[in-house]
Amino acid sequence: MMKRRGPPVQKSMMDFFSKKSKNRNSLDPQPSVPACDPPSTPSPTPGPEMPTATAGAYAEEDRPLALESPVTGPGPGTSSFTPSENQSAGSPDQSGGDSEDIVGIPDDRPVLPPNDFGFFIAKKTSDEEKLEGLTKRWCPSEKSQFPVSYHTKNGVSRPRYLLRHHLDTYKWLAVSRKGNLSGAWCSVCVLFGETLDEGEGARGGKGRSKGKLVSRPLVDFSDLTGKNGALVSHAQSASHQANAAKAASFTIAMKDPKKSIDAVMDTASEREVRRNRAVLTSIIETLKFAVTQNISLRGHRDDGRIDGSGTQPAENDGNFKGLLRFRLQSGDEVLKRHLQDGSGNALYTSKTVQNELLDVLRTLVQERVTNKVQKAQVWALMADDTTDISNREQMAVVARYVDENESGQLVIREDPVALLDVMDVIRRSANGPELKMSGKNLAEALLGSIRKLGLDTSRLVAQCYDGAAAMSSERVGVVAQVKEAAPLAEYFHCASHALNLSTSLINKVDLVRNALGTMETVVVFLTDGAKRGEILRYAQSSKMDGDKRLKLIKLCQTRFVERHLAVERFLEQLSAIHLALEQIATWQDRRSSSKATALLSAISRTEFLVGLVVVERLAGILRPLALALQDKQLDLTKALQLVDAVKSVLTEQRASSEKEFAVLMRTVECAAEKLSVEVRKPRLPEKSVYRGNAGRDLSTEAYYQITVFNPAVDLVLQDINLRFGKHTQLTASLSKLLPKKTVSTEWSDVEPAYEQFKGLLGSVTDSQVKAEFSVWKAMWRDKPKEEVPTTAISSLNACPAEIFPNVHMLLKVLSVLPVTTAEAERVFSKVARTLTALKTTMTEGRLEALVLLQVHRDHMPATSEVINRFAASACRRREFRLRL
């Protein structure tokens, strides 16, 4: 039997690592680790003159001739060896069952290769040395150079080798012949790992020691690749896989930094993020299209997945999913793969995600608008409320400010910033069962919305509402509450509401009120039935030219001046209406024929014709002003100029009432002739005690002038003077800064405005502002009249902020003073189109987002910005954020 000699197994050694290896999640696929390069020439033959080193057990053929301490090889079932310098002779051997394992090394000392892995252990290596230890470490080239362990079982001693195929299979495996470090090592764990405790298990638990291959060499080769083999267990450990990833990334980075594992992984992660963003882009673009076009999103049953093939379902699941299918059919492959292969809880097509995306869009739009408002330095607040179809009290909040357009010119903006469910806000703070729509509660809702948006109330210079007591009361209304939070905010009654209230006083004239009531009844009667409508169209074709066959318009219930078009069209089609009523009066249908007969008699009276003609004249005079008041760019000074023009016309009409009414009577006579009606005044009593009477002796024309035309003009003119007088007072001082008035203005006329808004000008002295005003006044003194601005916004554009900073600020205040709440009412029009009878259960947040996005089409955020905000708003199952 061949005898073997060698020292016993080393039971203890120096621990070169002090920290435990941190368990890391395994990477799949695991990056490959470069194997050692086999030497191009055989290892030098050891001789007696060579330096000695303790090595692991090697085959007998590899031993040199010169031996320092001869050892007798083991016999069957026995072990005889010389202990190494790190192990006492009494150390126990490795055995199990009835076997006796003998592990030893030759006592000769072979020459160590210069790149023996032992030189890389327990040494602070540089990056270049680490790379050499990974790629150029020494590997045995012959079987005789591989370490071997001897194991006695049933009295028979058997060798167990570490062979070449182990190194080929486990690229990280390294071999050393250096002293007490001789044996097998894990190169990646030694070079890139941390110190491991002896008792830490191979898979993170207790049991097999992880110290082998890492903190001490593996010298027992009896079980390497079995189920629980030393190499298999180590390769499967999380710490080894993490270290292997580090080593692979390090090697690639050292050879080619552009192809490092981290870079590759980052690139792969970035590609995945871009795919996710591409999917969300398709979803957001679809959502934005539906919102801006006011297309309903949801269906009767819109839960569940969307078929990636784009097949239409049996039931309608909503326009949003239908539009996504349209994208699929149009070739959106990224969205198709996502819908086919994506996880059901990360499709991002549900109603919940829709609401989140809408909320992000709304927030971004609000931020853009509020940022512009803050940049403008001063702003005005406008608000109005109404009840929607779902019986919720909606309040629209609008900010008026000065901004630059694309060409750099300053313009006035009126932008809605919020839509509130007032009752919901009041309900949260209510103490009792009754929800009071008081000025205090309304103001709390309004101011809460302003604070939430981050608007600065210290620079709020005006507030504008309708004339309702809860809003306009300067003692307990919203005006008083807002004034406490914003001392500079003067109240301006909505000019459109004021004009409407003034013109509605015409209804106090009996003939006018009765004429409008009759007209409305006739229009409803002829247009609310298909059969009667057909008769009207036949009458129009018989009596009118083709270009005048327009549909009759019902009277506007909210704006009196808007009735001008309805009255005008009714008078144009009066002969056709008369013919239609005559034909319906002959029907066998008793209900229709009797009503047509009564209406035919009513419109054939002179009082009816006179009332309509007077309404048409007054509404025609007031209509240009009403249309101008709805312009967003209108400033208060120009509005007051238009009011003055209207008052001038009405005054002239009243002063020459006989002449003006004579023209109206010619119109009445022409209409009466077409209807074959005699123009006459009504039967009058000889003496009137309880009501005014123009007298029986007056002519028909004089009678209607005194009883209809004059009272109507007087009522409208007096109320306009009353309602718009306060607007003039509030702007009197500021309007003196307009160039057309400045040339004839003294500083004492402007000083009240300066004292009121002094806090907005910063740290300036009275003398500085006064001197600046003098220069501003002198600049326009010799200018031609056609070059002098007449409105606040045109004057502001002509006033450089660098030269006249204080005058510029005061003109900006004048420009933002509100005129009407027309923009808030436009919001209500969009609410009515969005919140239909089929969508009355829509939440307030979703409704606000839909309405604001429709209003601010020009402020629609970029899709990438929406994705970034959506990804940051909550933890998402997919990653959407690109690495910077």
In short:
The chain has 31 helices and 11 strands.
Structure description:
The protein has 884 residues and is of the alpha+beta class. It contains 31 helices and eleven strands. Strands 9-8-7-10-11 form a five-stranded mixed β-sheet, with helices on both faces. A four-stranded antiparallel β-sheet has the order 1-2-3-4, with no helix packed on it. β7 (379-387) and β8 (393-404) form a beta hairpin. α6 (261-292) crosses α7 (319-329), α11 packs parallel to α13 (478-485) and α20 (606-628) runs parallel beside α23. The radius of gyration is 48 Å and the shape is elongated. The two termini are 70 Å apart.
Essential attributes:
31 helices, alpha+beta, elongated, 884 residues, disordered N terminus, single chain, 5-stranded mixed beta sheet
Strands in their spatial order, largest beta sheet: 9-8-7-10-11
Specify the helix fraction band. Answer: 40-55%
Q: Mean pLDDT, as a whole number? A: 81
SS-derived structural category: alpha+beta
Number of helices: 31
Helix-strand layout with pairing:
Blueprint: E1 94-96, E2 99-102, H1 127-135, E3 148-153, E4 156-161, H2 164-169, E5 173-176, E6 183-186, H3 187-192, H4 230-236, H5 238-255, H6 261-292, H7 319-329, H8 333-341, H9 351-376, E7 379-387, E8 393-404, E9 410-421, H10 422-429, H11 439-453, E10 460-465, H12 469-472, H13 478-485, E11 490-493, H14 495-504, H15 510-527, H16 530-543, H17 563-572, H18 574-584, H19 590-603, H20 606-628, H21 636-655, H22 657-675, H23 700-731, H24 739-742, H25 747-756, H26 766-779, H27 792-797, H28 805-816, H29 822-834, H30 844-855, H31 863-873
Parallel strand pairs: 7-10, 10-11
Antiparallel strand pairs: 1-2, 2-3, 3-4, 5-6, 7-8, 8-9
Helix pairs in contact: 1-5, 6-7, 6-31, 9-30, 11-13, 14-20, 14-23, 15-19, 15-20, 16-18, 17-20, 18-19, 20-21, 20-22, 20-23, 21-23, 22-23, 29-30
